[in-house]
Amino acid sequence: MSASIAAPRFRVTQLVRWVTPTALILLFVIFAVASPTFRTPGNLLHILVNNFTLPAIVALGMTLVVSAGGIDLSVGTSADIAAMVAVTLMSLGHGLALSLAVGLGGALMVGVVDAALITVLGISPFLATLGVLFVGESVQQLATNGGTPIYLVSNFPAAGLDALAHGTALGVPAPLWIVLAAVIVVQVLLGRTPFGRHVRAIGAAPQVARYSGLPVRRATWLVYLLSALLCGVSGLLLAATVKSYVPLSGNAFLLDAIGAVFVGTTISREAKPNVLGTLIGVFLFGMLHNGLLLIGWNFYWQQVAIGLLVFAVLGASFATRRLQAAD
């Protein structure tokens, strides 16, 4: 192929890699014009705190799992179990620190079950985590008499809980600091450690990684435990925000987390999960939810719009890869 033909094609493939950031900018402009409320500082802060933080933490856990070639359909279960355990303990009069710690322990148990099913019994990640999702839903319904919310008692000392959900540090809401900490941890793990290199190698070629002597089982255990832990943090933040536990509420994070991770792969030259791409995907979905609500679209049409957006972004990325392969 001559240089005159290859060069334009190369420029096209480079441009299409920016389809997700471009979609983000275009949607921002559209919503800013369609609804003056959208572009106000208060609403933009609302998107960051209420539409971005909790899904971002869950999606970071999903990024780890997908990087290792897996999937975690039980992210909502991890979040819900953490919230259920913590709120139940607090409602019984136990201290905040103990309740939160035991709640995170409950989330970790979900990760233990996921990892054991996959590494010990050899069940595929999809089926293993799907089974845990179903069992987790049943456990929550049984524990709450069919799905009755658990509210904190009125005399619970809520100062620490309020600080976790609504406090600020240096003028920045506390949940955003928690997201920043999660971003740093996941980015360092994936990009700066042998564990991260093993995870990416396993995700790219699991059989080759196994025959090469890489610690496939250990890495699998760690990614599912870390995913469960991050989801548990998100569940605790949700419980702190509403001062209650609502059964099955964590399942709302699942589809957005999966979508954000795979939409985020479009900004990677190798089409791999990455922290920056995941964050862009989460913010894109959060902005779409908020903007469509402000212009009057109901929840069901919002889901249609998100589905179409995912199809458009991933379709453009797929076309780009095909174009690159043809070079």
| Total individual domains | 1
**Shape category:** globular
CATH topology: ABC transporter involved in vitamin B12 uptake, BtuC
Q: How many extended strands?
A: 4
- The chain-level mean pLDDT equals 86
Q: Name the strands of the widest sheet in spatial order.
A: 1-4
What percent strand?
under 5%
Low-confidence parts, pLDDT < 50 over ≥5 residues?
A: 1-10
* Second rung of CATH, namely the architecture: Orthogonal Bundle
Span between N and C termini? 8 Å
Radius of gyration: 21 Å
Overview of the molecule:
Strand 2 (168-169) and strand 3 (172-173) form a beta hairpin. The chain has helices at residues 3-16, 19-34, 41-67, 75-91, 96-119, 125-143, 159-166, 174-192, 194-204, 206-211, 216-242, 254-264, 275-294, 299-326; strands at residues 150-151, 168-169, 172-173, 244-245. The protein has a single domain, classed as ABC transporter involved in vitamin B12 uptake, BtuC. It is an all-alpha fold and 327 residues long. A two-stranded antiparallel ribbon has the order 1-4. It has 14 helices and four strands. Residues 1-10 have low confidence and may be disordered. The termini are close together. The protein is globular and about 60 Å long.
